[in-house]
Amino acid sequence: MDGHAEDGGRVYQSSRDQHISEYHYHGSDDPALAGPDSVRRPSVGRAPVVLRDRAEVLKRLRASVAEGKGGQAFVLHGMGGCGKTAVAHALFQSATEASGRVGLWVNASDRASLRSGMLAVAADRGATDGELLAARNGLRPGADLVWEHLDRSAEPWLLVLDNADDPEILRDGSWLRTSPGGIVVVTTRRATARWWPGAELQHIGVLPREDAARVLCDLAPQSGTLKQASVIADRLGRLPLALTLAGGFLSHQVLDPWTMDAYSRHLEQGERVELIDQGADLLSDVDPRHLVGRTWQLTLDAFEARGLPEAVTLLRLLARFAPEPLPLALLNRPEISGVLPRARTETALRALLDQSLTELVNVGVRCVQSHGVLLDSVASATPSDSLSTLNSTACRLLDAAIPELPDAGPEDPHLRLLSPHLIALLQRGATSSTLADLVGIATRLATALHRTGDYLSAWETAHSAVALSEHILGSEHRLVLAAHSRAGRALFRLGKYAEAEPLLRQVRSNQERLFGACDPDTLDSGHGLQLVLGNRGKQAEALSLLRATIAGRQSSLGPAHPLTLRSRASLLTMLSAAELEMEDNSALLSLPSECERHLGPDHTVTLGARHNHAWALYVLRRFDEADEEIRLVADTYERRFGSDYPIALSAQQLYARIQHKLGHFEAAVSLMNDVTERRTNSLGADHPFTTASRKVLAELKEDRRNAP
């Protein structure tokens, strides 16, 4: 028997009867060849019930898909979970239902999905089986085939390339192009313009507060009010993904339904990320992009795979801080080398910016800012064995950013920006080895803020440091007491004398019992307490405490120490004319010269001594000398600190009173009008300093009317 076979044919030879069964399977396990089930329907997770906000963006996008429009590409970029896909989905529905376009949706998250999806687009637009097979087998360029058929499409179209977070995939093979017949929309986390030449970029951020609250009410209308939803929205940073999951959780509770208030309490008390992700559909395989606890991990995994572990480390370091603007200068310090080489910080930061994991903001200081839910997610997934190093590095960075010896000066926005990050580091559960250091840093920051006139931030910083550390370090820990004292002094400057006095009394009493009457911390609290007592009309007790503070500082610090000289200068404002003229106090009137000799003419203590000396001269009715002294001080204060600085206003008030005594009534009233207005604006109408200024102004006006 002769026989032959060609190509895939076979020849079977037998001498007896044979039964042969042969099975053929045509196909491939290669996902690139499998193709999506549909490109005519968006492959999205849970679409929003109503797309909130986004009206301006959608208006522009809808205009681009109007009849006769084409040849444009739009890139919707933003952090994971901000709703880029939801915006693309809304446009897709509008384009297909209202504008009559063919809608084509491709998952561009990886090479296989992109290639199979785009070849399915070619098939939809008329490519033959032979053309598709050639493209799949690498016999002709796949991208060329797709765009050839898109260009020849008889119908206008909209092509969405969703989750294109790896633009290199699109660039390899030139998958992203434009065509006169259609519009291309890309959703991505990659914000850098160089990836998207010729495309119009549109940032998609978090929702406005009211719209964010309405998302929750859309999903769980029976759970609470718009006001209650607003509280949750704030705690979730108004991130659409987090809002959607929270709404899903609230709407699916059956046995024990939660109210929005209950959900809000659990957000505050528990693990925020885990609670949010409970809103995912438990009966389906959840895409990691649809969970706040996993969506950003995809990008971190990609960093590791591409040899950028420092980007992961930098994000974990940022997750120790607050979701508030963080000065860039903080990340450009040698101390950052504790977790990554300083030379690689720039590369790491650029990678995070490119992936929309953080963003640049300018609040008068160049900063980076990351979303709170993102930071919580990263913090919860940070390996425990790296927390100690991350915490200590964050601690050292903050320490280096705060002056070692804070001095008086104009308001410094850089310092104010550090406060929430220091508090966040304490809240993250700093290890015991860094907790005491952080409390000390917080007290120093509060002191620096206090001396720039930002008393509210000073109080918040010191008060938070005590609240977050006292239960661990103990209420009698030296650093905890020092932070308490600083909080009390800030309360005094905020005009809350009734709160400041008992706090400072208790702190000073504890410090004296634990450390002694002449301990620097005890004396510091004593100096602050005597200021409160003096302003509460308890002059005798205030003067006695001030004298004891002076004696203690002379003994422990020396007569020429700035703090000793500062306390001595305070005596100039406490004594009557008769007391100032007493022989024992006569040396006080030469105190400015003594300060200048020891500290220099421009030292803050020297200026303060001159200011108080001018008051003493006023009390002694030596108005011409007082006028010369206070004019110099007021001009220096305004030049160095600004006209709204608290002690600058105090000097101007004294200047007005002296002008009045010299008979310059109009000038005096004009000066006091200005001081009163500025104090009202900066301190509030009810602050004791403002009240005192109004009283002085009324007296000057009355005397002006009665002047001959």
Automatic annotation (TrEMBL):
Residues 59-192 form the NB-ARC domain. Coiled coil: none annotated. It comes from the Bacteria. Residues 1-45 are annotated as: Disordered. Residues 16-29 have a biased composition (Basic and acidic residues). One of its GO terms (molecular function) is ADP binding. This is Tetratricopeptide repeat protein. The lineage of its organism: Bacteria, Bacillati, Actinomycetota, Actinomycetes, Kitasatosporales.
